[in-house]
Specification:
The protein has 2 domains: 87 residues, Urease, subunit C, domain 1 (Roll), CATH 2.30.40.10; 284 residues, TIM Barrel, CATH 3.20.20. β9, α4 and β10 form a beta-alpha-beta unit. It is α/β, with parallel strands linked by helices. Bound molecules: zinc ion (ZN). Zinc ion binds next to loops.
Length: 387
């Protein structure tokens, strides 16, 4: 048992000074003045610290990705220590551009490995391409038979790297994912990779207008990648859809018009978008290619899960978004939208995933995942098998 005492708690709603009691990997109680005999329980005095739910990063290329500048640019797998440093206790793994040298079997194995190392994982079936590659032969079977598979993606549209799916192909894919989700009690959500193409959200708008599939079946990502797409995202979210920002970035992207996530969150809220419609993800381990004017790759970096929380921190410290408004984009919102049971909240019955932050500058101080310390007072207490 672990009792975190005297922290300023955000569940992510502001709960004031309460104690959090955890046992067996779950949260038992979140209440003022919990007392437990010391022989049964580790008591940690977190006075002066801020306790928040462990972060959920719902779009991470845990198996590595990329290769967009040739074989040498294939990016490495996610290391546990990066997740720990980033306060990320739950990741949703996905494949990206490359679904040939990267496979769903490999993705699932990597996800199970990260589970064994101490964090929680889910995966998406498919990758950029349509028709979709699945593990068991169909999207519905994947959702019904593989516990970790919770949806589809990232399917690429409006991008030069997309397989340019037709309207009918795209609708069929979304319909299968919806049915599989309904039958398995999962979200069955379609994670859509949006490129810089002029068509933007056209395909999505057409599905919503012409079929019975609701806007909430989709989680379009990279919504902050250019000013036009950002504005389309505002309209999509005000119409009831979800929008996902990508926190991994490089200065060149911002210079070209990418909207910094912290600023984008404030602007969307000011534009009247409900905070519940917004998520941030890191696109961790994805490649960050830079292209010249002819579309040739001229450089490649790697996204990091450690980019996730700093954008929430910047939203609070620089953009003056209240912490209880900013936190849900990496906790309660992705957990709710993706139906990740037991995740994203500090509440009785939920998984014991918790991050302690320093007051004022909001630095990550400690990380607990499924009731186990992964970082304590800045010192990592766990690492990946080969780290
Ligand atoms: Zn993408």
């Amino acid at each position: 048992m672990l009792l975190i005492k005297n922290a300023e708690v955000y569940t992510p709603a502001r709960a004031g000074r309460v104690d959090v009691l955890m046992a067996g990997g779950r949260i038992l109680r979140v209440e003022p003045e919990i007392r437990m005999p010391a022989e049964y329980c580790e008591v940690f005095d977190a006075a002066g610290l801020v306790a928040v739910p462990g972060f959920v990063d719902a779009h991470v290329h845990i198996l590595g990705g990329g290769g967009e500048g040739g074989y040498a640019t294939r990016t490495p797998e996610l290391a546990l220590s990066d997740a720990i440093r980033g306060g990320v206790t739950t990741v949703v793994g996905c494949l990206g551009t490359d679904g040939v040298t990267r496979s769903l079997a490999g993705l699932l194995a990597k996800a199970r490995g990260l589970d064994e190392e101490g964090i929680s994982t889910f995966v998406l079936t498919g990758h950029y391409a349509v028709p979709l590659q699945t593990l068991t032969g169909s999207i519905e079977r994947d959702l019904l038979f593989v516990d970790k598979i919770i949806g589809v993606g990232e399917v690429a549209i409006s991008d030069h790297r997309s397989t340019q799916p037709t309207f009918d192909e795209f609708v069929r894919l979304a319909a299968e994912s919806r049915r599989g989700g309904i039958l398995s009690g999962k979200a069955g959500i379609v994670n859509i990779h949006l490129g810089d193409g002029r068509r933007g959200l056209d395909l999505l708008r057409r599905v919503i207008a012409e079929t019975e599939i609701p806007a909430t079946q989709f989680l379009p990502t990279h919504i902050n990648r250019n000013p036009g797409l950002f504005e389309e995202g505002i309209a999509h979210a005000k119409g009831g859809g979800f929008v996902d920002f990508t926190t991994s970035s490089i200065p060149a992207y911002i210079a070209e018009g990418e909207v910094k996530c912290s600023e984008g969150l404030r602007r969307m809220l000011e534009a009247g978008v409900a905070g519940t419609q917004i998520t941030f993800t890191s696109d961790g381990q994805g490649s960050l290619p830079t292209f010249d004017e002819q579309g040739r790759t001229v450089g490649v970096g790697v996204g990091r899960v450690t980019s996730l929380f700093p954008e929430v921190r910047d939203a609070v410290l620089q953009e003056r978004v209240p912490l209880d408004v900013a936190l849900p984009v990496i906790t309660a919102n992705p957990a709710r939208i993706l139906k990740l049971r037991g995740k994203g909240q500090l509440a009785a019955g939920h998984d014991a995933d918790l991050v302690l932050l320093t007051p004022g500058d909001l630095e990550i101080h400690s990380v607990v995942a499924r009731g186990r310390w992964l970082m304590k007072a800045g010192a990592a207490l766990a690492r990946g098998t080969f780290e």
